[in-house]
User: Fold Restriction endonuclease type IV Mrr domain-containing protein from Rhodanobacter denitrificans.
Amino acid sequence: MGYRRNRKHWDDDLAQVDPTRFEALLAAYYRGAGYRVEHVGAAATGRRYDGGIDLRLYRDTSCRLVQCKRWNAYQVPHNDVHELLGIVLTEGADDAVLVTSGEFTAAAIEAARRSGRIELIDGVAVRAMLGLTDAIVPAEPPRLRLAAETDYVPRPRSRPRASRSAPLWALLRALLVLTAGVAIVVALARSITGPAQGRVASIDAGAATRGGADPAPPAASTVEPRPQQAGQPLDPLALVGHRTAAQLAAVAGRPDIAAQHIDAIATDVMRSARVPDARRPIDRESARAAARGVEGVRSAVWLDRTHLAVMVDGAAHRNEKTIDRVCLALEPLGDTLAVVVHVQDVTARNADGAATLSRNCQLTAGQRAAFERAREVDVVPESTRTQFKAMQQR
Assistant:
């Protein structure tokens, strides 16, 4: 995985300390904040591996985990956020803090926001915590100078040199806008009959109410939350909104905002076409730890990069609800459209009870995401079992 360089280069005392001293400074800070600190990092214990954490913070009955990264050259990526979240779930901690002396990637910041249990502290914030703000000035990395640079007088160029990738991006965006336009027309056509049918139903319901019967009070909702769903028709209003906003941003000279709305259109089109987001892969170990935290789950193992086998205790947990709960537990880790969950009852005593229940996290039973390969988990396929039963009943 290629790392992104920090946008700013810190040239101060904190940037010069070694990892051991960096951990010690943070340990001292948290002790002063009222925590009982257990320093478990490899730099302090002398062990080769630290298990992914450097400090454990205790206060009353709560436990926080801290991972320290003295990274001055590169940004900390989202993989470290996912790994730390998996450790939080495995150790049963309340939350965790990921500290760097530099910066985080945008994907790491988004992953931490979605998790709700990971706090990120970058170089600016950690220096403020340690009281080093007044002595620190972020500086750009030093630039090499040519021997005759002072004698060089740049000539004005008649036109800026265009990037080689500019035509490609222009073509891609044009295709996305064209696709969105077609999708808007299709979605509007589909929505014409829906509201009309709804109005007829509402008229019939209103007539029944006016006949003298009071409407029944709404029943208490016992519906559990569902995972994100893909493969749905595109929302024409949302697409029109993004397209209009992108055009206005381009006219106003804000290409960054225009690109965000074009990105949103592309994401909606991809989700409607059941295409997983390759920019948000799910870390396997974190996913296993999250799945094991679901009620009734005994263990979880990856069969390949897409298929996750989940073993449950009893037939009461071999159902669609368990698949939903596992998928909800995986959502903070990345895009679950690339995950198929297979639930098996390890206590089953017959072939029917031992049959695997399978489904993609964001699709209905029987549907597959784009580029997803079907995988037969059971030794005896369901079609063979059905055929055998039919032969026995003759």
User: Anything to note?
Assistant: The radius of gyration is 28 Å. Residues 172-181+227-273 form one domain.
